[in-house]
Recover the amino acids of this structure.
């Protein structure tokens, strides 16, 4: 694990300030869709030796990376599963671009191109995994490439019980239903929603789907290299 590489990625990422602001020493936090561990590493530093980072990642190569990271950061618990709305097995689809598998875009979402790498993985509900968790869960980062509704469904009791701060990547291009359905559902149970862009944090009322997402979806759109100005990170604060 090259920590220098992780640091460089965080310097370019708009979510880093959210993690620094809301993740505190001693907390228990979740990294759902941990990928190669950029946020797992950062949150591990933030929570310190008295805290705990639960890192969820189904892609085998990334599980190995996270396990290696956890050997030097013992406050990390690696869960080699995909979170969803049921327990069992699922197909993880990893898209290819120019014949290269892009693990950062791996998802349980159906509809990914037939040329994707397909891997059978275990899936679990957050509620079933966290039902015996005694420490309050304070922060959740979720990046699951279009599977966020199922993650929320499978973790609804946990969300209601702990009311953590939520940082969720949401993109209309992945969805058959309006993304505001998920946002509205969380607002209805007492969350205030904001979106993040290069200028900072803004109330959801200022979000414009056409301006902030859809206009970028041209033939030149490359999902693993998001264009400047594209908005897909949303912050939910318990009110």
């Amino acid at each position: 694990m090259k920590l220098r590489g992780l640091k460089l990625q965080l310097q370019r990422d708009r979510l880093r300030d959210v993690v620094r602001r809301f993740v505190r020493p001693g907390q228990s936090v979740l990294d759902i869709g941990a990928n190669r561990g950029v946020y797992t590493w950062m949150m591990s530093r933030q929570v310190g030796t008295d805290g705990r980072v639960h890192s969820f990642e189904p892609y085998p190569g990334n599980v190995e990376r996270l396990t290696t990271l956890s050997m030097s950061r013992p406050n990390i618990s690696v869960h080699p599963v995909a979170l969803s709305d049921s327990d069992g097995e699922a197909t993880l689809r990893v898209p290819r671009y120019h014949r290269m598998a892009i693990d950062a875009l791996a998802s349980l979402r159906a509809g990914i191109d037939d040329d994707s790498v397909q891997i059978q993985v275990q899936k679990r509900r957050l509620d079933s995994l966290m039902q015996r968790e005694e420490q309050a869960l304070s922060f959740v980062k979720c990046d699951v490439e279009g599977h966020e509704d199922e993650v929320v469904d499978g973790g609804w009791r946990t969300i209601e019980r702990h009311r953590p701060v939520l940082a969720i990547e949401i993109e209309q291009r992945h969805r058959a239903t309006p993304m505001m359905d998920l946002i509205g559902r969380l607002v209805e149970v007492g969350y205030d929603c904001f979106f993040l862009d290069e200028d900072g944090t803004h109330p959801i009322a200022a979000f414009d789907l056409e301006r902030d997402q859809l206009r970028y979806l041209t033939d030149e759109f490359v999902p693993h290299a998001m264009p400047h100005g594209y908005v897909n990170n949303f912050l939910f604060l318990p009110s």
Observations:
- DSSP finds nine helices and 13 strands in the chain.
- Residues 3-83+127-238 form a domain with the Rossmann fold fold (CATH 3.40.50.150).
- The first strand starts at residue 28 and ends at 32.
- The two ends are 38 Å apart (CA to CA).
